[in-house]
Structures are given as C-alpha cells and as structure tokens.
Amino acid sequence: MNCFSDAQRQISPKAYNLIIVCLLGYILVDFVLFHWGPAPECENFALDVAKAHPDLPDGASQQVVNSITGSEEDPLCKTALGHLKFAPEVPIDKAWNQMKWIGAPAYCKVKGHLIESLDPLNNFRRGFALKFVSDVEDKTLVLPWLYGTKVNLNTKQRRVYLDFGANDFRTSVTWFLQMYPCDFTEVHAWEVNPGLFNIPSPGFNEDTNWIPENPHATRVIQTPKVSDWMVQRIKQYSTFVSDDDGKGSVNITRFMKEELKLAEEDTVVVKMDIEGAEWPILQRWLNDPEMAQIIDELFVEIHYKHPSMLDYHWGQFTHTREEATQLMAELRAKGFFVHAWP
Ligand SMILES: *[C@@H]1O[C@H](CO)[C@@H](O)[C@H](O)[C@H]1NC(C)=O
pTM score > 0.90 for this model? Predict the structure, then answer.
C-alpha cells in the first residue's frame, strides 16, 4: 500500500519556478563576481612567486603583479631605466627551489611582447645557485620567452641562424635546430678552435626510410643519421668574430650587412658567446638602428668580472656586472629582443 497521499508527493509549480530562479541567480552572481573582465595573463605564476616568498621586501609582490601586465605605454620603457625595473629575484639560496627555472616577466615589453626579467643576482642563470655546470648552463629558462613562439618566423623566405662561438656541434647549433621554433634555411657557425666544431658527415637519405602508411613504425630500414639536405644548410667559419676586420678576424656587422646581405625581410636569430669580444660589437649595435631591424632575436653571453664568476675563469674580463646589466637593458630599449645566454 502507498503510504503517501498524492497531495503530499506533489510539489507546487510555484516551488519549481522558485528553485529555477534561485539556481539561475546563483550562476549569474558567480559569473559577475569571479569570471567578469579579461582573463589575466600568467597571473597565477607571478602571484605564486610572491606567495612562495613572503620574505620579499615590501612592495616587491606588488611589483610582480605590476610586471604581469608588462607595461609598454610607460614612457620609461623607451629608456634603459624602464628595462632595468626587475621583478624581485628569488633569493639566491632559494633559486633552485622551484619546479621550473622560469623567471617572472620584465616590467617592459620588447617589440610588443613579454620577455623575462633580467636576473643579475643569479648571473642571469636561474640555476646558478646549484653550481653544477649543467644547472648553470641550463637553457630552459628562455623557452617560454622565445620570440619565435610569439611571431611566426617561418613565413619569411630566408631564415637564418647565426652562431658566434659555436663550440661543439652539439653545444648550441643542435640546441637551436631542435628547440627553436623555426625551420632555418641557413646556419652560419663561427668557431676559431678547429678541433671543436665538426659538422656530422651526411649520407643519410630519409626517402629510403619513408613508407606510406607504414604499419610497422618501429621496423627501421636504416638507422637515422644526418641527412644531406640538413648539412647543406650549414656553413662553417674559423675566423674570430670581431668589431674590426683584421688578420684572422671579421667585422661581423659589415659581414652580416654586406656579405650575407641580411635585411629586415629575413628571419635572423643570433647567438653570441665570444669571450668578451661582444662588448664593442653590442655597443656598435646600440647606435645602429638597422641592426635592431635585421635581428629578430638575440641570445648573448655577456662576460664580466665578478667574484661569483671566478670559478669560471671570468677574472680576465674588465667590465662589471652592473655594466653588463645596463647593456642588456639598453639593447632592449633599442628594440633588441635579447636574452642572456647561459
Ligand atoms: C664594421 O663595419 C661597420 C658596418 O660596415 C662599420 O660601420 C664599422 O665602422 C666597422 N668597424 C670598424 C672598427 O671599422
């Protein structure tokens, strides 16, 4: 037997309507309170940095929040002063205590895009505190800030990668060929030490490994090596990269303009690690607006004298770390999308 009468089981239509109105109202209030307005950019990461380090000085957290927006309207960003506005560095004794060594964005954008804040206290190296060479030379910190991920550099016909101070083939040329989001049509690598840079011998034909709709992807016909087309794109030089033409050295500014005939229409990515010879070249580029137009993105190891770098034989250099920081900021103010190369 049914214990409930029909009258008890029935809910009036008025009650139904009230429930629906309440639910809709809740959704509306929640939307206005929590989802209204533009989506913040990278907000959580920067706020996390501030939260994770409550010992940062007063106002520093706010600086992180300000840096999220990456001001460009600020007239200060036309000058080095704006580009010297750092998000607070993670204290050096805690610099390693994070999952990814990615810095906060700088206060000023470059070419309309966010770029990492300069980090002189860690010698521009997020992993410096650990002191292992592999951490000091870790390059993952630049990955989120690559210009090639913000702008499609593959639409240009000529796409050039220049490596000044290439060292071993696997040091930076391989890194850029694998990690940089551009299919370079030309690679020019300078290395004075003839024993260091060796282009792998070609002779691998990818066509022989290609099978349409291969049902056995793991069944390799020939172990992949370097293919002819890739090696044909790489050119090797054994002169010193310099500001001046001389015996065994080349004026790289002249070479880029007159011999390689690089222009604004080309994609040009430059990596420079030339043991102090970068100073006169970069100082020239500061006063050459053409170079800021030609170079899309610049990675440079700036060498300076500082007690914390003596283990790396940097005692021989004369400029200070403050001068190095100033130079980076000036380059950014002049429109160079420049990163410190570890
Ligand atoms: C290097 O070349 C540039 C561009 O051609 C030129 O302006 C500059 O004077 C040269 N450097 C020196 C030291 O002559």
Answer: no
